[in-house]
Write a structure and sequence with these properties.
The structure is a homotetramer of 366-residue chains. Chain A is α+β, with helices and mostly antiparallel strands. The first copy, chain A, folds into two domains: 56-216, Jelly Rolls (Sandwich); 233-363, Sandwich (Jelly Rolls). In chain A, 18% of the residues lie in helices and 32% in strands. The first copy, chain A, has seven helices and 24 strands. Chain A has helices at residues 20-31, 41-44, 60-73, 177-183, 205-210, 234-249, 350-355, and strands spanning 34-36, 56-58, 84-87, 103-109, 114-120, 124-127, 132-138, 141-146, 150-153, 159-163, 169-175, 188-190, 215-217, 231-232, 260-265, 279-285, 294-296, 300-306, 309-313, 316-320, 325-328, 334-338, 342-348, 361-363. Chain A has a six-stranded antiparallel beta sheet with strand order 2-21-18-23-16-15. Chain A is globular. The first copy, chain A, starts with 19 loop residues before the first helix and ends with a strand. The model of chain A is unreliable at 1-10 (pLDDT under 50). Chains A and B meet through helix 1, strand 1, helix 2, helix 3 and strand 3 of A and helix 1, strand 1, helix 2, helix 3 and strand 3 of B.
């Protein structure tokens, strides 16, 4: 795609002279539910994406006490459904939207608690930065949740969670709630008040059927809209990233850029994104490495999984520790810098942008 | 797809007790840019799409005087770019959005006027309910605009218009401006202050290359994101609809439903929609015919092109005359009823819904 | 794709020494239905495609008397099914195969004759170099056959022909019979002894529904494996080619190469080839123009429709008149040279090569 | 798809009367390289696929002594390229074709031997029924070959093999040589006289980059025509089959049919077949289980990997032991019967049939 316009000296500005006739015309517009383009063009059609959303960093050290206090004060059950703390982008007017398309939340489930089953059109995933002891039950298939795992609940699959341990557990949820709400696409249905299967197997049925590299069950030849894999285990992610860096050491073209290993979680029936609206990826930078500065159409959210480093957003550097989360709105520049080996989980609305042909990326030269 | 939930007796409602501790927690949320899910769930994730947008009908008889007055009072030129009156859905807070995804406007160009060239990521089309005399120049290719024609300017193509006649001309514009604005995907670039080619050929280059049914130029074997056809002429649309009704008379399965002929405008390189975000269709009902009542995820806009009849939206009947426009928000029921032979142009955001797998339709049995 | 190997000085040649033990081994091979690779490699896996098929030209002036004599001597009816003279490539051992994949034949139908209905997996088309008066009935839809028309009967559609005139008619048939026979994919079923509809409409139902450029009936939204258009009329083909040359005159990029207009007949539901195994195209060269010399993987058959010129195959020039047909086997070089304006119909097995990723083309520099 | 015609009482049979005029006509045909359809129809277009190929079983016990004797008598090196014994279908006239599309061979490499590098358009794989000690080097990436592994060398990748051990090794090769030869699509190029990398890593670069279930390297986002995985390890295949049977025991829908687990080897960039012309699968039947009898368009080859059982082809039962191979031609019925737990490797030309829309399958009811 083309680069963004780099100068916009000509402005959207021309306006008609203010006269009694014009005021009468504008009154007529109002009465007839008409708004003229010429009064709004610059805001409606900016020279490049100019999001109301702003970059923001949430510190894990600030979030966790609030999550724990919620665990003490707020019940979880039918009605409220989930004890989830939505990260609200400061630029989006108090809505619990981390970006115009994405929702990100901290979910907290106390010892022995159950979050009841429901399903919705919205696509959802969970990523576990720490802890274990919870099983999420997706369409009747119990899926263990452990540190470093990505768990999927694609649109219209029933799901509930239960904590079998005697300690609370916290994870992040990612959904396309803002997109669904803005574009009026969502359906919601309540399911069982409990989870439909309290078994705690080590591996879900979906994993046992689908997590064999390059092998497809003959009982699963029909392509699916979303991935049939319920859990992407940390063990595999870690090994994939480790191998990329080792291959790089051996002179093979395995990494995205020098010192930067990365994988995309995919739907094995198509090789494409795990869900139609959300891309999930994982990045690992070697100690001392930095990613190139880039801008993308569409918004991204990251969570630090391991190590320390920084992100530079719009030329401002933010230091990051384990658990910290940040959002990069559309067309805002960003780059990652690793102090130690630096692992980050990353999700975005890129599938929307690509499927509708709005995707553009600029990588800055150094 | 599944039907919508037909009863939602269980409500999103459970709330924690109001205590000093809870208030302190909520204050902490605010400070940390956190919004809890449990206070918002019902609004964020309704049982079925519950659009802020409302159904509305704009009468051509009301719009035209305002367009003419704008022609007298408002110049057209660099800055304002277009003399376009945006139809503002009464439910969308005063924005010039006819639905959460779509923009619809009346554009008015006076005798000998030129609307300067620009380009933008937003996909656009024009449909001509009456008149002639204007050429739109798309990437240097002059395209005649005449009654009944659909004219395309897909994203990032330069385009300007000029009126060679001594009378004004009016048409409707459709774009994905609201979608682009909400999701931060739009780029904009100014082009020539005039149009780059003032020729007035009867047929554009794109038509001459591509408008031969079932024939593809060997110079155009690469599929394109949007249709390479700049103008879909009324003559062809009319003939296609006429033939469908004749075939129906002969007992052939050519119509959508009894007495209801319809075509979709498509990209000849793929057979799919003309642009990635906007579907364009045309409906013809025989006098006395009615379409079945249906609900769709996604929003639609119609303009009456010929004949009289009515639309029933959410059980309310609206009588319609030539030029009248109306919007059907997501998941609102609608059906068309023809008094005379009844021709309507129709556009929607269906490609978005289908590509992201949110599309659902329910057709009611009678 | 890569170029072909241009030198093959190293030969497939190494053979073991002839000893009693080797002879015993070879006897064992024979007994066990084993053939060793090392005795056959050069023939099985040549350095580049080395077809048994040879280039050949059939002169219309030679073919027509045979067709007429067949009309006098050979009945048409159930059993033989068609009075078709298959063009047998001289290199393919007496089989009626014009190439390893394709069948081409002259079909001749006398006044008032009927060729009975049948269907088969093999994909078929007809192209009419002269005459009129026959209707082909495809799945009950009568399709007029006139000069310059391409008529389709994709696999497993019932079809029969009848001549309503008092003069005989001749046309060419193209099918994938050799491919189907070699690869054991064909089914065959007899249908009506007559045609199921003796009506003689000017336009078939398929045309009336589908031949409106860029317009798709809403009753036909499901993509089809083969084109739903039964007849591609000469009027449209001629106009498309005429426009390409006019656009070239105006400086637009409309032709394949200087003086060479060409169209591909396509399936309007996909923009792709009309049938899964056969590509159909039409070429027009200006008087004096020549196409660049090229080699393609896969075989092509041409028929001169209008004008005079020549084809150079493997550096040998063959002069061509109206109706003459020729075959270009895989990886044999060819170019067209126009004396007058020169129109040629062209079909090939290119969809097979492309879908299986064997396609390669080299265009020689001048 | 439709069922095959089940009765074909009407025969292709009608022939003209033998007269001097007819003989003269036929002489004219011969002179002009014409073959009439009516003399050949039944053979060219049978009522259903009627392959010249016949079902046949090759016993491993017969093959191995021949392979060993070849090792003693026939060198391996540039020219002959490979010590490969092609299984020649008894119905295909002495060609080393196991079916009209497929090649299957036993390849034998002695201690410390090297088979030199070359590349060709033909797609190839190897499957290892026993042994170890050989590395195949594919485009410079050394790939270990061990028991139960499937190794790929898709078209136009350089490859050679070398045996590092002091014992010989035997495996089977599968290619699309007959298809390529018949359709004239093949190119061949010699490479290094030795292998380009004599390293013996446990895992190839391709595996290290791609064999992490559901994870795609960001350096490999471009889809590839064939799988980027060089080796599909037995460990994964075995585990996938084991899990399917365990899930079946637990009441989950994981197997193809009762007691019959099966996987397809796939290209992780698309979820589709490993190569454009060849499908590879693996079947496991529980002791005592049987697969349903079926017919498919296209040909299949099987090798028993473990266990004993039988195949019933065209109602004739053939008992099978480890290493035995058999071919099922197009539209011939087959079913598997397990005595012990029964493991079979299976390859076929199904991608050709599916991509060209000739695929049909009938599963017989019991």
């Amino acid at each position: 795609m083309e680069d963004a316009p780099t100068h916009d000296t000509v402005k959207h500005s021309m306006q008609p002279e203010d006269t009694p006739e014009l005021r009468k015309l504008y009154a007529g517009f109002k009465e007839q539910h008409i708004v003229p383009l010429w009064t709004q063009l610059g805001d409606l059609m900016p020279m490049h994406p100019a999001s109301n959303a702003v970059p923001h960093v949430w510190k894990w050290a600030d979030l966790m006490p609030l999550a724990r206090a919620s665990g003490d004060l707020v019940p979880v059950g039918r009605g409220g459904e989930r004890r989830a703390l939505g990260l609200a982008n400061p630029g989006l007017g108090g809505n619990a939207y981390i970006s115009p398309t994405l929702w990100a939340a901290i979910q907290y489930l106390g010892p022995k608690e159950t979050a009841p089953e429901h399903r919705h059109s919205q696509n959802a995933f969970r990523f576990v930065v720490e802890g274990e002891g919870v099983w999420t039950v997706v369409n009747g298939d119990p899926v263990r949740m452990s540190r470093g795992d990505l768990l999927l609940t694609p649109g219209w699959n029933f799901h509930g969670h239960h904590n079998v341990s005697d300690h609370p557990m916290t994870w992040i949820d990612g959904l396309d709630i803002p997109f669904s709400r803005q574009n009026d696409v969502g359906f919601f249905e309540f399911g069982s008040e409990t989870v439909t299967d309290y078994a705690t197997p080590n591996f879900s049925q979906g994993e046992r059927l689908w997590c064999h590299p390059g092998l497809r069950p003959l009982s699963g030849l029909r392509d699916t809209v979303s991935s049939p894999i319920g859990a992407y285990r940390w063990e595999f992610t870690d090994r994939a990233l480790t191998e990329q860096l080792l291959l790089e050491d051996e002179g093979q073209p395995a990494t995205v850029e020098q010192g930067h290993a990365a994988i995309r979680y995919v739907n094995p029936t198509t090789g494409g994104d795990v869900m139609p609206t959300i891309r999930c990826q994982f990045h690992r930078l070697r100690a001392g490495a930095a990613s190139k500065t880039r801008r993308d159409v569409g918004s991204s959210v990251f969570q630090v999984f391991e190590g320390t480093g920084a992100v530079v957003i719009n030329d401002m550097e933010h230091r990051l520790d384990v658990g910290d989360m940040f959002v990069v709105p559309s067309w805002v520049s960003w780059s990652l810098q690793a102090e130690s080996q630096f692992d980050l989980f990353h999700f975005s609305d890129a599938p929307i942008m690509e499927r509708l042909h709005f995707a553009r990326t600029v990588v800055m030269d150094e």
